[in-house]
Amino acid sequence: MDENLWPVRNIAEYAYCPRLFYLMQVEGIFLPSSDTELGVAVHGRADRPSAVTETSKTGAEDPDRPVTLRSLTLSSESLGLIGKLDLTECCGNRAVPVEYRKGHPRRIVPNCSEDSSEQHDASRPIDAWPTDRVQVALQAMLLEEAGYTVDEAVIYYAEEKRRLHLPVDSALKAEALQVLENAKKCAQGARPLPLVNDPRCPRCSLMPVCLPDEVNAQRHADGEAHASPRKIWPPRDDGIHLVAQQEGVKIGVRGSELQVSDKNGTVIKTIPLIHLESLSVLGSVQVSTQTVHALAERNIPIAFLSPAGRLVAVIDPMDSVSAQVRQAQVRKFDRNDVRLEWAQALVAAKILNQRTLLLRNHPALPASVVNDMADLAKNAARADSVESVRGLEGQAAALYFQYFPG
Question: What is the pTM of this model?
Answer without folding.
Answer: 0.54
